[in-house]
Design brief:
Elements: E1 2-9, E2 12-18, E3 24-34, H1 40-50, H2 60-69, E4 74-82, E5 85-95, H3 106-119, E6 123-124, E7 127-128, H4 130-145, H5 151-163, H6 177-180, H7 185-198, E8 200-207, H8 211-220, H9 222-225, E9 249-254, E10 260-268, H10 275-287, H11 293-301, E11 305-313, E12 318-325, H12 330-345, H13 351-369, H14 372-384, H15 391-400, H16 403-410, E13 413-422
Parallel strand pairs: 2-8, 9-13
Antiparallel strand pairs: 1-2, 3-5, 3-8, 4-5, 6-7, 10-12, 10-13, 11-12
Helix pairs in contact: 1-4, 1-7, 10-13, 10-16, 11-12, 12-16, 13-15
Length: 423
């Protein structure tokens, strides 16, 4: 396997993952822009409209026929929030040319089709097709309204909103209904053109490929050639903008629920060299997996929670503790969780727990390498954070972390917000 990068134009990069591990080729385009309240909803709507048709394939039916003709290739797109950036994602997966009749050149067709879907949309009267925009606005409205249906996810998002109130990271990646109502086919197309002018564009191609051949195809592509030279392209790599507080913020929200949802957002005020490896291991010992302190003590020993776990958001240096509990167990659950945080500060964890955590992280890394989309996402994460660590280097750094490193992380963790969703 080799990973190669080439800048095609300013802020347009080609990333080639040359590997023979998979029977498929995976092509992805990522458009990355800083989050902002004014554009977050329109940005979220754009991929859904783009997937409806291109200037050459004007309907989803025509696109589906084209994909079928490419031996059942699949296309998908979506939206993510990574740190303070909003990411528009587009994927096309197809069978590797090696398994097809000679001279099919299916990879070339796939690259050109995906670039067509992203950069050559179906336009009428210098606007997106009104029918497509209207339908996708309704679909996006349902997605935004359905945010409340998954109470666990809803509580997590609400805790983030409270921690990052009035900052970009507090924005919901799909946007807001009141903003959606302002969008029409004309101003959405104007927003799309501005997006192409200002987004960081990363094109990934993974599979049994040759970078030079892929580069030739992309450099010949009319859609890439028509993108003018761009300036003022940037994404945001900062980790901290949350307000420092003396005492944890307590937020209680009431809703018709049968199970309480407790989310504790913590700040990790720790930025030493190689901090992400040390914090990752701390998080695994604290709350990731069936052997973690949260699972063993909050759920198993005290029977206070149906679920008890934590996750680390590296881009913002936060750890979120998440539990589903009986409403009457709230105070006891918070107390036991705080005990686990104190135990970690005081070094009350064993070398065996550290070794198990290292094995857990390393196993996850190796699984990532065996899944084509996960491997591609790993490299995109490296690009977005403006750093590069190979899988081998990552594994070596994990192995070097000591108990003292993890305890130092624990001593720099502070509860920021306690959010509780109850009846």
């Amino acid at each position: 396997m080799s990973y190669k990068i080439e800048e095609i134009k300013k802020s347009i990069k080609l990333h080639c993952i040359e590997t023979d591990k998979f029977k498929t080729n995976l092509i992805s385009v990522f458009l990355s822009v800083p989050l902002d309240k004014k554009n977050v909803t329109a940005n979220a709507l754009i991929p859904a409209v783009l997937r409806r048709g291109t200037n050459d394939l004007k309907t989803q039916e025509e696109i589906s026929i084209e994909l079928e003709n490419m031996y059942g290739a699949t296309f998908d797109c979506g939206i993510e929030k990574t740190g303070d950036n909003q990411i528009l994602k587009f994927y096309l997966e197809m069978v590797n040319d090696e398994f097809l009749p000679d001279n099919e050149q299916m990879l070339n067709k796939g690259i050109n089709l995906l670039l067509d879907l992203v950069f050559n949309p179906c336009i009428e009267n210098n606007s997106f097709k009104e029918e497509y925009v209207k339908t996708e606005k309704e679909n996006l409205k349902r997605i935004i309204e359905a945010k409340i249906d998954n109470k666990d996810r809803y509580a997590f998002e609400r805790c983030i909103e409270e921690m990052y109130k009035n900052t970009t990271y507090g924005l919901y990646k799909y946007g807001y209904i009141e903003e959606l109502e302002k969008i029409d086919s004309k101003n959405l197309y104007e927003r799309y053109k501005k997006l192409i002018e200002t987004a960081k564009i990363d094109i990934f191609v993974s599979g049994d490929i040759n970078k030079e051949e892929v580069l030739k195809v992309i450099k010949k592509n009319e859609n890439i050639n028509k993108i003018s030279e761009r300036t003022d392209i940037h994404v945001i790599n900062s980790t901290k903008e949350v307000e420092e507080i003396n005492e944890p913020r307590l937020v209680e929200e009431k809703m018709e629920v049968t199970q309480g949802k407790l989310v504790i957002g913590t700040d990790v005020n720790f930025n030493e060299e190689n901090y992400k490896y040390k914090i990752s291991l701390y998080n695994v010992i604290l709350g990731e997996g069936a052997t973690s302190k949260l699972f063993q003590n909050v759920r198993e020993r005290e029977s206070l929670a149906y679920t008890a776990r934590s996750n680390y958001i590296r881009q913002k240096n936060n750890i979120y503790i998440r539990c589903g509990i009986e409403i009457q167990n709230y105070e006891k659950a918070v107390s036991v969780i705080k005990e686990q945080l104190e135990d970690m500060k005081n070094g009350k964890f064993t070398e065996e727990e550290i070794e198990n955590a290292k094995k857990y992280v390393i196993a996850g890394l190796r699984t990532t390498r065996e899944e084509q989309d996960a491997e591609l996402s790993y490299y995109f994460g490296q690009e977005l954070s403006n750093e590069f660590t190979t899988f081998e280097e990552y594994e070596e750094q994990i192995k070097k972390v000591t108990k003292e490193d993890i305890q130092k992380v624990a001593q720099n963790i502070k509860i920021n917000t306690i959010y509780f969703l109850r009846n």
